[in-house]
Amino acid sequence: MKKIWIMIFSVIFLCIYLMSDKIADKFSTDVMGAKVLPVEEIEALCEGKEDAYMEPEITLNGGKIAYDSALNLLLIPQNLSDAGFDGILQVPDGRLIFMQDEALNDKEGTLRDSRMLHLYWLRDTGCWMYNVYFTGMPVVSVTTKVEANEEGIMTGDVWVYDQYHSAARYQKAACAWHLRGATTLNYEKSSYRLTLTDKKYSLLGMRKDDDWILHGLYDDEGLIHNKLSYEVWQEIAADNHVDYDEGIHMEYVELFMDDTYLGVYGLSERIDKKALQLGKQDILYKCCDQENPGEEDFYQELTEDMNPTFVLKYPKDFGMEDWEPLRQWTSMFCFDEILDYESAKAILNLENAVDYNLFNLLTCGMDNIMKNIYFFADYQADGSFQFIKLPWDLNMTWGNSWVDDYNCNFNLFQEKNFESIGGWTPDMEALYERNPEEIGALLYERWQHLREAILTKEALYAKVDAEYAYLYSSGAYVRNQQKWPPKGEYWQNEYIYEYIDKRIDFLDSYIGQMR
Question: N or C: which terminus of the chain has fewer CB atoms within 10 Å of its end residue's CB?
Fold first, then answer.
């Protein structure tokens, strides 16, 4: 009988042990250094303590956690490749407790669906609950210390939490920033120029620098047109023999400013002297408008109210003679018929010009034919210049177009984009009209080469897949749409695949006729 009771108690103990194991699996008892308890237990622990707001002095691996004061929201970065929630949450005193939730055992779904959890901070006399979201995207948080001066420049600190590229993960610097853009200044979601004032950082795996742009991406409801375009151009440019024409890199971040969540932004490098390794005799221009570039538009210093077609970005201290290379380019390609074909070819780095033209035909970059281009006048040993072009502000690409709204662009699925020859740059169009056999052959041969690997449909689909997968799996796309609801009925994730499919087919046929 004694043996029977021992066996019964052993079975009962084993069942209890197995059940407790299942319960432990279902509700983890510790997440990121914080206990996980049912709400009833938390309420019991908070009983007798003051239910009052506490400044969120909660850190992740010693770094600041971004906070939205209006929503009482903490956004905690996570690495998407890690199976469990990683990192350690800490407070200066007291302890942290997560309210028990199935979401704590489903990291992938919690991030993807942007599920809200609750984190309590218990101190000796106080208790406060925060709404918590996890993100698979790096987070940037800017805090103002000195309000805008007469030039609109604010100063303060910036924190960057990068769970992918930085060994330290957490970077902090003093900074200054101001609104930037032309049309985008009218948007609800602003873009900013950000300058690190005490040190340079390599942010999100990009070059080490102190000068950055935060693009609002407000006119890109899919959020991918700019980044996809830059990546495609970089691959094309890396495949040619032209130095420093790859342009800039852009990475996604979720941005907070002064405890306010602003959504998904594109953090990018700038096209400048550093990016192009400009020498003392090189010149850098930027085309800001593509309508009727005339000689009178060159001189932005003539009047404060003037909105010039071109601005001279380098050298900083320039003279009127520095406009001469651009005068030659506009004279040859914007006004008169080409009289000297060889001279017109010589003013261009033809390899870059061919690549840029094909890229713009592919993306149907109607806003990048002349506008939104940096013109790099590369000084040659014989005293002449060759122009190298780099694209900028690539939101109106891959079928994106204006839709009866002068405040914002929308992604519009337009059948005409498939078979439109729009995208020709004025220099390549002029050269082609003068000598279709030679220029047509250059375009055809280069297109065939790019189609072998870089511009296959599968390669472009894969890039789009990767962008969407990251935006959705991080939860950032959902939060951005909640912050900035769609303004039109035009956006469909699938349209860009059909655009690529039909645009490639059209260009295969169109360019094929040039051989």
Answer: N
